[in-house]
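User: Second chain of the day. Same drill as before.
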Amino acid sequence: MDCIDLSILKCLKENSRQTASMISQTINLSVSAVIERIRKLEAKGLIRQYTVVLDEKKLGNDLTVFVSVRLENPRCGEAFAKAASAHPNISECYYIAGDVDYLLKIVTDSSRSLELIHEDIKAMEGVAWTKTLYVLSTIKNDVSVLPGEV
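Assistant: Same format as last time:
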């Protein structure tokens, strides 16, 4: 991956719906060269998917929390990960090192629905302990970070 590939990725990161023509004008490269480079980035797996970033608040999801989860036993990890992955309100799930085993990001519409989600989490196999952190405001929320971005 060279600086031209990084420039293409930067354009796509800003707006994945940009056409190759728009990108070519931005980085001063022919449209066919841009298309070929994008295909290579996709083939290498550097571009995994094109997606949409939704405005959760406009969808009615006014509440975002992070939940730390500690399991009773490491053997419960696979079952927990499967259950967390299947839950519609858990938007992110990380297996982490430290005092807890998992960190979940939950997006929902109310404290009542959060209470129900919390009950779901506590009922998952092996959950021994949880701690919930409420997000007051989001300062930064990038989907990806390009190499060399400082």
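DSSP finds five helices and four strands in the chain.

User: Great, on to the next one.
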